[in-house]
Amino acid sequence: MVYLMGLFYLTAGITHFTNPGFFLQIVPPFLPAPGLLVVLSGIAEIVLGIGVMMPSTRKAAAWGVIALLIAVFPANVHQALYNPTLVDPPAWMGQPTQTALYVRLPLQFVLMWWAWRYTR
What we know:
By secondary structure, the chain is mainly α. The chain is built from five helices and no strands.
């Protein structure tokens, strides 16, 4: 399961670079330098995805995943409240519904729990 988690974050991180416009629209307008934030979060997801797959870095990377999920949570809330229609979502995602955007919010806590399992 840890390799599935790693691939999930690795793929998500790569998507920040293959489809940056999608992620730019999710960054709340009150945050500075949206382009930089998209790049940094993409790099973080790639590094953490690789990190959780390596036993020597797994614990630290899992804590990093938790921190990243906490850091991006406000953007997910903002999107659910103010930006339900996305421009150019990744093909695998399709156009999320308002319900899907709200369902994603508690899913963040499930993802945190999944990462937390590898912090021990």
